[in-house]
């Protein structure tokens, strides 16, 4: 007899690392981190079930978003660093970051758990709904890591389960 839960599991670091490595084609290291500071430049990805119930969030700081986008698109590191210095996420980096976060939905889709998909990605300086901002700041069922992509550098990534 199998039991189905209505909540997504907190993924393992192994599955997060492998998923990102598979996307960007570079070594990725995850180490203990702190929650990304609440900044308007953060990128917030909202994952929902087939019933449109918010299931999980992935929050990345601007540095992590730029490095994910740059490494996926093989954009030269200098251009990625320039975007970070300018505190902006150019459209190409934003679109590539979206692709990585979209594929990351797979880390939540396990047997006997609800099917989850990326519903929305809030780019830097987007208006984030209050309930999503509140969930992003939740203490508890979350993983906060420092993500380092070989050749691109590091940033902060948080996964929050509702």
Strand order of the largest sheet: 1-5-6-3-2-4
Low confidence ranges: none
Order of helices and strands: HEEEHHHEHEE
* Share of helical residues: 25-40%
Mean pLDDT: 95
Q: Give the amount of beta strand, in percent.
A: 25-35%
DSSP strand tally:
6
Q: What gap, in angstroms, lies between the N and C termini?
A: 26 Å
- Quickly give the structural class: alpha+beta
The Cα radius of gyration reads: 15 Å
- The coarse overall form would be globular
Number of discrete helical segments: 5
Biggest sheet: strands, sense, closure?
6 strands, antiparallel
Write a structural description:
By secondary structure, the chain is α+β, with helices and mostly antiparallel strands. 33% of the residues lie in helices and 27% in strands. It has helices at residues 13-24, 62-73, 77-85, 91-103, 130-136, and strands at 28-32, 43-49, 54-60, 116-122, 142-149, 153-161. It has a 6-stranded antiparallel sheet with strand order 1-5-6-3-2-4, with helices on both faces. Helix 2 (62-73) crosses helix 4. The longest helix has 13 residues, at 91-103. The two termini are 26 Å apart.
Question: What's this, in brief?
Answer:
By secondary structure, the chain is an alpha+beta fold. The chain has five helices and six strands. Strands 1-5-6-3-2-4 form a six-stranded antiparallel beta sheet, sandwiched between helices.
